[in-house]
Amino acid sequence: MKNLVTTTWLGEMRFESTNPSGHNLFIDAGEENGGKSEGYRPKALMLSGLAGCSGLDVASLIKKMKLEVNDFKIETEANLTEEHPKYYDKVAMHFHFYGNNLNEKKLQKAVDLSIEKYCGVMEMFRQFSELTIETHFHSK
């Protein structure tokens, strides 16, 4: 299956990028690199893609397993190498689940299924990064 994304220069350091979903996003450099900070940074966007991919898996599994979760977020931290081309050599993902009646065992299984089986973006990151995954449970 092919996906087509068209990224169009809008002048200076700003681009508009299409998405197969029909939603567009803007990419821009920070002021320190000649941009105006009016869009996403490309490398950070990769981290959003990683968290979004795994998050969609986990949300789907929460629904299928009929789990009670009040809130759920993923914090992703990455270490950028110093030499060019700069890339993320270490990435840590922290899955946070909030609720009064969390089934920790099943939620952990949902996270594990995403990171080991379903998330294609995770598999792409494995090609160049050392990944660390942690799951945190918070009762409200």
TrEMBL record:
InterPro entries: KH_dom-like_a/b (IPR015946), OsmC/Ohr_fam (IPR003718), OsmC/Ohrsf (IPR036102). Pfam families: OsmC. It comes from the Bacteria. Gene3D superfamilies: 3.30.300.20. This is OsmC/Ohr family protein. It comes from Algibacter lectus.
